[in-house]
Amino acid sequence: MQPIAIIGMGNYLMGDEGVGIHATRKLRELEWPEGVDIIDAGVPSLALLHMIEGRKLVIIIDCADFGGNPGEIRAFTPDQVKKPEPERQASLHAADLMTTLNIAQQMAMQLPPIWIVGIQPKRVEMTMELSSEAEHALVTLAPVVRNVIEKQGASALH
Amino acid sequence: MTKANLDIDLHYITRVEGHGNIVVNVKEGKPEKIQWQVPEAPRFFEAMVVGQKWDMLHHITSRICGICSIGHTLASLKATEAAMGIEISEQTAKLRRLAIHGENLQSHTLHVGYLALPDLMGVGSVVPLASSHPEELKMVIRLHRLANEFSDLTTGRTTHPQRLIPGGFTKLPTKEELETVRQRIIDAEDDVKGVTGLLKALAPKFPNFTRETEYIGITCDEEYALYDGDLASTDGGQDPVSEYLSWTNEYIVPQSTAKYTKRKRESVMLGALARFNLNHAKLKPQAQAVAKELGLTAPCYNPYMNTVAQYVECVHTLEDSIDIIDGLLKHGINYDEVYPKVTPKAGQGVGAVEVPRGLLIHDYTYDRDGVCTVANCIIPTNQNHANIQLDMEKLVPEIMDKPKEEVELTLEMLVRAYDPCISCSTHYLKVEFKDE
Question: What is the extent of the structural domain holding B126?
Answer without folding.
Answer: 45-383
